[in-house]
Design brief:
With 214 residues, the chain is mostly helical. The chain contains eleven helices and no strands.
Length: 214
């Protein structure tokens, strides 16, 4: 319970924790951000790591001069592209065996099924669209690997999606994160980002459930 409380606190106070990390580790913070983004996009068992809100917070600190904007963008973009590529390979080689199991301690099959439903509606564009939707973002490349999508095709969507995601979320923080009203209500802003980003997945999941019943 204490772990869950701390994790929620980490989500809601990214500005405070990121500030402490920057002060304590300096340039190593780039590596820490790289690892978090890589794991959130690349490891199908870690969809709960901060994504959109972390990029927004990083952009906010870049505007204050704590990060080099160009270097930060490069680090995050490479992490996101490599993460999806690794996740694709995991899905391609291990997915078929894992997906057949109704219950798996490392994988939520409902998330896989929900992502399959996204593919049925949006096709390969899911790789781009999913970048902006937590959980779906982590499972989309995995499912693409299971479906044996051409890697050349996957990579092009992967790069476009990663660059778009980093630009929107990080530059959102860069341009708006240090506005006084945002700074004073950063927790509410982070919660808002989380709600807005999760809503499409919730709506699609409900549609999927009702469609199955029908």
């Amino acid at each position: 319970m204490e772990y869950i409380t701390h994790f929620i606190d980490l989500f809601l106070h990214l500005d405070k924790y990121l500030s402490e990390i920057i002060q304590a580790y300096g340039y190593v913070t780039y590596l820490i951000l790289f690892v978090i983004v890589f794991c959130e996009t690349g490891l199908v068992i870690l969809p709960f790591l901060p994504g959109d809100s972390l990029l927004f917070a990083a952009g906010t600190f870049a505007a204050k001069g704590d990060f080099n904007l160009g270097l930060l963008f490069l680090v995050l973009a490479v992490a996101a592209i490599l993460g999806d590529s690794v996740n694709y390979e995991i899905g391609r080689f291990l997915g078929p065996k894992i997906a057949k199991q109704a219950h798996n301690r490392f994988l939520n099959k409902e998330h896989v099924d929900r992502t399959h439903a996204f593919y049925e509606k949006y096709g390969a564009k899911t790789i781009i669209i999913a970048r902006f939707i937590p959980i779906i973002r982590t499972f989309a490349p995995f499912v693409a690997g299971i479906g044996e999508m051409s890697y050349k095709k996957f990579l092009s969507y992967n790069v476009i999606g990663a660059l778009g995601w980093i630009t929107v979320c990080m530059m959102g923080g860069y341009w708006f994160g240090n506005i006084e009203i945002v700074k004073k209500n950063f927790t509410m802003v982070v919660m808002g980002i989380m709600v807005v980003s999760i809503m499409p997945a919730v709506i699609e999941y409900l549609r999927y459930k009702f469609a199955k019943k029908a």
